[in-house]
Design goal:
Blueprint: H1 2-26, E1 30-32, H2 41-50, E2 54-60, E3 69-73, E4 79-81, E5 85-91, E6 96-98, H3 107-116, E7 120-126, E8 136-140, E9 146-148, E10 152-158, E11 163-165, H4 174-183, E12 187-194, E13 203-207, E14 213-215, E15 219-226, E16 230-232, H5 241-250, E17 254-262, E18 271-275, E19 281-283, E20 287-295
Parallel strand pairs: 2-5, 7-10, 12-15, 17-20
Antiparallel strand pairs: 1-4, 3-5, 6-9, 8-10, 11-14, 13-15, 16-19, 18-20
């Protein structure tokens, strides 16, 4: 009897426990997990906690903005017990990587390498006396440094040497014009052109013209006045020897003087002709002969004294 009573008691306890467990399980609430993907971690956490869930987060790299929910477990729409834990995967951005070293490369090469490395680019042009046009000078962030994948890398590329506006040098002395060009980093090339109305050494024209743009190292051609190599023989007939000589020498000629008798006293000591003649054009340094008139008064015939007649 004792053993039978013990067995009955044990069975009763088991039944009571089973009933209690069934009652407890039957009272457990099932709820739907909200879909919080693409929400910020703060917003997602708020939604889940209000729905009665515990929240755990884990960071991972992603192209999505930082602190954006990119995954969840259990997934949205799943029925689970209220109070369960929902684990959220949260973006910490795309991660970082080294910026490629592209200084000294062409712009096309640099942009291709940066794109391949996962970076966006912005191009800025600047003048440079040292780096050829179209070649990368530097980047920001600098090559070799770490930056967020997808970040913008500013590429500074050379537009060539700095441009300057040419000043007006026409009418200036050659030396002054050369000095101005030198200060601008330009090279002067000079050609000579004979001029009868401008002083030798005066700039007559320039190429490129004033107001045009040029880069450091470019050549500007200056056309500079030079004295003519020929001159026109002036008309010195009727001038004194001294006056005629001065005029001819001022024109660049050498002078030779010869005399020639004249019957007109007014021509005495005056130029009566030149060789070459006035108005002819000849090389400077050539000789002009002037003929000076020399007047000699005529002599009277000698008279014989009257001797009278002989008786």
């Amino acid at each position: 009897w004792y053993q039978r009573s013990w067995a009955i008691g044990t069975f009763a306890v088991i039944v009571i426990c089973a009933v209690i467990a069934a009652l407890l399980l039957g009272n457990q609430t099932r709820v739907t997990v909200p879909d919080v993907r693409n929400a910020t971690v703060a917003s997602a956490t708020d939604q889940l906690e209000k729905a009665g869930f515990d929240v755990q987060t884990v960071k991972r790299t992603s192209d999505q903005p930082i602190n954006t929910v990119v995954g969840q477990q259990p997934s949205g729409g799943t029925q689970v017990d209220k109070g369960s834990t929902v684990r959220l995967s949260v973006s910490q951005g795309p991660g970082t990587g080294p910026v490629p070293q592209v200084a000294g490369q062409t712009l096309a090469e640099a942009l291709d390498r940066l794109k391949t490395a996962g970076f966006k680019t912005k191009t800025v042009k600047t003048a440079s006396d040292d780096v050829d046009s179209g070649v990368v000078i530097e980047t920001a962030p600098s090559g070799g440094s770490l930056a967020s994948i997808g970040a913008v890398v500013t590429v500074t590329v050379s537009s060539g040497k700095k441009q300057v506006t040419l000043p007006d040098l026409v009418g200036q002395p050659e030396d002054a014009a050369r000095a101005q060009l030198g200060e601008l980093g330009l090279v002067a090339s000079v050609t000579q052109q004979e001029s009868t109305d401008k002083e030798a050494g005066t700039v007559l024209s320039m190429s490129p013209a004033a107001g045009k743009k040029a880069r450091a190292g470019d050549t500007v051609t200056l056309t500079v006045a030079s004295e003519p190599t020929t001159a026109t023989v002036p008309d010195v007939v009727g001038r004194t020897e001294a006056n005629a000589t001065n005029q001819l020498e001022d024109k660049g000629f050498t002078v030779k003087t010869t005399d020639e008798p004249v019957s007109d006293q007014a021509s005495d000591g005056k130029v009566i002709s030149t060789d070459p003649a006035a108005g002819e054009s000849h090389d400077k340094g050539s000789q002009v002969t002037i003929v000076i008139g020399v007047y000699t008064a005529p002599t009277s015939p000698a008279t014989t004294p009257d001797q009278g007649t002989t008786p």
